[in-house]
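Whiteboard transcription, Tuesday session. T.W. wrote the C-alpha cells on the left side:
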C-alpha cells in the first residue's frame, strides 16, 4: 500500500511546470535500480527518460553508491570560499583532461541553469575587461533551451520559453531562425546566411553566441547539421565573439561522441556541463573556459573577480560522485552502447513516419524522438505507458526517450513498442 500522502502532494507541492489548482497525476516511486523505477504500488517501469538525461549509468550503481558513501563519511559539505578539498580538485582535473585542450579553468555550479548564468557572466566580464562594455548582448538560435533562471531564460526560445509572460524583466537578445538542415541531409551554405548578416550588423554589440551543439533539447528536441555549428564557430572567430556551447544535455556520450561539439570538430570558448555530470545522483554543473578568457577576466575591473559564488559551490558529495561517474565514462562502455541503441531506435521508430498522425521521427545517438501532429494528452499517454510498464514523459507534441546507456535490447524494445502503441492508438481514434 502506498504510504505516501498523495493528497498533500497535490495540494502543496509544485512539480516541474505544474499548477497547484489543476495538478497532473504523479506516480510515487519508492526506489530505482538499473533501468527500472519501482513504484510504491509494486509495479516496475523501464525508464526511458534517464531522469531527464542524467542517470546515464542506471540507478543504484554500485560504484557511484560507493563514491557517495565514502565521501559522506569524510564530509558532506564545507563552504568553498577560502577552503578547497580533494573531491573538487579531482573533479576539475578530470573535466579539464576530458574536454578540448583550450578549456582549462572550471567553475563548479550547482545546477545547469546556474552554469549558464555563469557562462554569460564570464562572457560579459571578459568583454568589459577588454574595454568593450557595449559588447554585452547575446545571440542564439530559436528552439533552444538553456534553463529557467532569468539570464538563461532570456536565451531560451521566445515562444516555448514563454518570454511574453516575463517580457518586462527579460533581457532582449538576438535570435536566429533555428537551423533546418538535418544531420543526415546534404549541407547547404545558405543555412548560415542569417547568421552572417547578424554578425556583420551587430558584432560590436555581441558578447557571445550561445547554443546547444547539434541537438536542441527541451526547446524542441531538434537535431541540426554539424556544419552549422562549425559555421557559427568560424563567424565567432571572424567577428571576435565568444562561443558558449551548452552541452548540459548532450555531454558525456549521449550523441555518440563524448561531447556533441566533436561532431563539428570544434571547441567552444565556454562550455556548460550538467545533467549527466554526476550520473544523475546529485545536482551539480560546471562551466569551463579557456586560459585566455580566465586571464582577461582576472585583469578586469573590480579586482578581476568572477562574480559568482553559490553557497553549495563545489559540494564534496556531488564532486565525488561526479568523479566516479567520469571514471565510468572513461572506461568507455558507452562507445559500444550508444551505436547499438541508435541503430535499434532507428529500426524500431523510423517506420512510424508513415503514420498521418506523425510529423517526424528522428534519432541521434541514444535519443529517439517522435513528433506528433497534435499535442499529446500527457496524463492519458502516461497512463498507457505505466500500464505497459514503462516510463516516458511527453511534452507538447513530442514523445521522446533518452534511456540509460546500460539499457538492454529487450528493455529498449519495450519502450519503442509502447511508443508505437501510442501512435497506433492516436492513428485509429
Ligand atoms: C536541462 C538543461 C539546462 C538547465 O539545467 P538545470 O539543471 O535544469 O538548471 C540548461 N541547458 C540545457 C541544454 C539543458 O538541457
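and on the right, the sequence the group agreed on:
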Amino acid at each position: 500500500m502506498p504510504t505516501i500522502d498523495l493528497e498533500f502532494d497535490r495540494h502543496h507541492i509544485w512539480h516541474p511546470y505544474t499548477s497547484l489548482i489543476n495538478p497532473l497525476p504523479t506516480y510515487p516511486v519508492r526506489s530505482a535500480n538499473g533501468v527500472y523505477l519501482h513504484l510504491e504500488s509494486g509495479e516496475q517501469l523501464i525508464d526511458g527518460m534517464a531522469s531527464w538525461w542524467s542517470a546515464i549509468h542506471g540507478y543504484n550503481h554500485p560504484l557511484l553508491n560507493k563514491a557517495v558513501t565514502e565521501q559522506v563519511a569524510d564530509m558532506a559539505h564545507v563552504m568553498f570560499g577560502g577552503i578547497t578539498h580533494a573531491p573538487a580538485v579531482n573533479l576539475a582535473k578530470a573535466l579539464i583532461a576530458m574536454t578540448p585542450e583550450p578549456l582549462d579553468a572550471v567553475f563548479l555550479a550547482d545546477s545547469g541553469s546556474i552554469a549558464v548564468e555563469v557562462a554569460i557572466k564570464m562572457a560579459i566580464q571578459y568583454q568589459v575587461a577588454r574595454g568593450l562594455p557595449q559588447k554585452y548582448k547575446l545571440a542564439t538560435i530559436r528552439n533552444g533551451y538553456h534553463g529557467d533562471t532569468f539570464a538563461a531564460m532570456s536565451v531560451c526560445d521566445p515562444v516555448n520559453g514563454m518570454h511574453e509572460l516575463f517580457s518586462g524583466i527579460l533581457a532582449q537578445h538576438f535570435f536566429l531562425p533555428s537551423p533546418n538542415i538535418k544531420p543526415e541531409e546534404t549541407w547547404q551554405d545558405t543555412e548560415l546566411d542569417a547568421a552572417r548578416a547578424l554578425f556583420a550588423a551587430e558584432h560590436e554589440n555581441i558578447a557571445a553566441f550561445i547554443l546547444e551543439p547539434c541537438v536542441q533539447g527541451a526547446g524542441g528536441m531538434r537535431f541540426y547539421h554539424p556544419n552549422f555549428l562549425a559555421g557559427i564557430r568560424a563567424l565567432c572567430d571572424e567577428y571576435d565573439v565568444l562561443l558558449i556551447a551548452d552541452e548540459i544535455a548532450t555531454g558525456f556520450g549521449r550523441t555518440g561522441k563524448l561531447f556533441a561539439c566533436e561532431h563539428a570538430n570544434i571547441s567552444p570558448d565556454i562550455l556548460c556541463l550538467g545533467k549527466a555530470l554526476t550520473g544523475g545522483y546529485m545536482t551539480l554543473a560546471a562551466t569551463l573556459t579557456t586560459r585566455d578568457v580566465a586571464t582577461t577576466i582576472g585583469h578586469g575591473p573590480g579586482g578581476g573577480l568572477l562574480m559568482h559564488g553559490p553557497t553549495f559551490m563545489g559540494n564534496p558529495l556531488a564532486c565525488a560522485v561526479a568523479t566516479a561517474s567520469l571514471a565510468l565514462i572513461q572506461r568507455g562502455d558507452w562507445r559500444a552502447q550508444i551505436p547499438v541503441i541508435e541503430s535499434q531506435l532507428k529500426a524500431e521508430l523510423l517506420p512510424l513516419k508513415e503514420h498521418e498522425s506523425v510529423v517526424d521521427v528522428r534519432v541521434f545517438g541514444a535519443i529517439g524522438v517522435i513528433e506528433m501532429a497534435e499535442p499529446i494528452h500527457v496524463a492519458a499517454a502516461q497512463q498507457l505507458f505505466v500500464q505497459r510498464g514503462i516510463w516516458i514523459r511527453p511534452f507538447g507534441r513530442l514523445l521522446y526517450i533518452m534511456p540509460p546507456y546500460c539499457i538492454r535490447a529487450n528493455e529498449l524494445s519495450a519502450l519503442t513498442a509502447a511508443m508505437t502503441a501510442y501512435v497506433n492508438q492516436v492513428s485509429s481514434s
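Someone added at the bottom: The pocket of pyridoxal-5'-phosphate is lined by residues 111-113, 116, 145-147, 212, 217-218, 246, 248-249, 274-275 (CB under 6 Å).
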